[in-house]
Design goal:
Helix content is 63%, strand content 2%. The chain is mainly alpha-helical and 162 residues long. The protein starts with 14 loop residues before the first strand and ends in an 8-residue tail after the last helix.
């Protein structure tokens, strides 16, 4: 990368977070962590629920498991943000909190994109189970194609996949 120089982060590249804003962020971290805990303890949908019925239609890969995985990815991204904003150990009184806004936006975007997969998968306009299954199969195909591209880019063998 000739022509580019690395600029070390300085207080000039960060912005201060006002105390009242920081308190709202801390409140949001509780919700993020609670959602993550619920998701890690939730395995299967309730019997006879719509999601359980969709799982029964396409039993090779559970729609509920994939939806949960996307939501867990979202919770993990947001959990990383929460761990930085409100760590379990508290800073000394009077410590200032300077943040670089772009990484925060990147974490938020990753969390939203992961959750958006679940929303698209489960928010079927006519609430038909078949439409949900079709969306699930499209997501599976797309994810497996991305995985195949990653294997090829890394130079790994794909003979069993191709």
């Amino acid at each position: 990368m000739s022509g580019y120089t690395s600029i070390p982060p300085t207080p000039d590249t960060a912005i201060p977070v006002p105390d009242e804003h920081l308190q709202r962020w801390v409140g949001a971290t509780y919700a993020v962590r609670a959602c993550g805990l619920v998701l890690t303890r939730t395995v299967d949908p309730q019997p006879n629920s719509q999601l359980a019925q969709v799982d029964a239609i396409y039993h090779w890969e559970k729609v509920s498991a994939w939806a949960r995985t996307y939501l867990l990815a979202s919770a993990e991204h947001m959990g990383m943000w929460a761990d930085f904003i409100a760590p379990y150990s508290f800073p000394p009184p009077g410590a200032s909190n300077m943040v670089r806004i772009r990484p925060y936006l990147l974490l938020a975007r990753a969390g939203l994109e992961a959750a958006a997969h679940t929303i698209w998968l489960l928010d079927v306009p006519n609430a038909t189970h078949q439409e949900c299954v079709e969306r699930h199969v499209r997501l599976l195909n797309r994810d497996f194609q991305y995985h195949l591209q990653a294997l090829k880019a890394h130079g790994d063998s794909t003979t069993l996949i191709d």
